[in-house]
Automatic annotation (TrEMBL):
The lineage of its organism: Bacteria, Pseudomonadati, Pseudomonadota, Gammaproteobacteria, Alteromonadales. It is an enzyme of class 2 (transferase). Keywords: Acyltransferase, Cytoplasm, Ribonucleoprotein, Ribosomal protein, Transferase. PANTHER family: ACETYLTRANSFERASE (PTHR43420), PEPTIDYL-LYSINE N-ACETYLTRANSFERASE YIAC (PTHR43420:SF51). SUPFAM superfamilies: Acyl-CoA N-acyltransferases (Nat) (SSF55729). Belongs to the acetyltransferase family. RimI subfamily. It is found in: Cytoplasm. This is [Ribosomal protein bS18]-alanine N-acetyltransferase. Acetylates the N-terminal alanine of ribosomal protein bS18. Pfam families: Acetyltransf_1 (PF00583). Its EC number is 2.3.1.266. GO terms for cellular component: cytoplasm; ribosome. It comes from Shewanella gaetbuli. Its main location: cytoplasm.
């Protein structure tokens, strides 16, 4: 997971942050091909609210629909565990992820100005929700 996270993001999660997500309120799923991890998702669920913490696909296999499969599973699992909505935040520059989320029904509900560090200083986080 750390190798994929580091390869896919300019500001990846640390090993400690990833390890912290293997606890009571989290679900971690991976998508494998020939015993090779291609991508993963991390969600936190508190009662009926689900937060998509991270969804990450190895750059070597991006564009093959793996992100879509992971997101579809996140939605299915949220519903199966009595979730009523999924919340997430995404970098404003991550147009591929924003498009994926919008195609799945997520809508922008707000922004956090200058939330993410970037090479040019900081960029906004777009807050999105999917409710059913």
């Amino acid at each position: 997971m750390l190798a994929i996270e580091s390869a896919a993001h300019t500001h990846p999660w640390s090993l400690a942050s990833l390890q912290d997500c293997f606890g009571r309120f989290y679900r971690v799923e991976g998508l494998f091909e020939n015993h090779q991890l291609l991508g993963f998702s991390i969600v936190q669920q508190i009662i009926d609210e689900v937060t998509l913490m991270d969804i990450c696909v190895s750059p070597t296999v991006q564009g093959r629909g793996i992100g879509r499969l992971l997101l579809d599973s996140v939605i299915t699992q949220a519903k199966a565990h009595a979730g009523v909505k999924i919340m997430l935040e995404v970098r404003q520059s991550n147009l591929a992820a924003i498009s994926l989320y919008q195609k799945s029904g997520f809508v922008e509900i707000g922004r956090r100005q200058g939330y993410y560090p970037s090479e040019s200083g900081a960029e906004d986080a777009i807050l999105m929700d999917l409710s059913w």
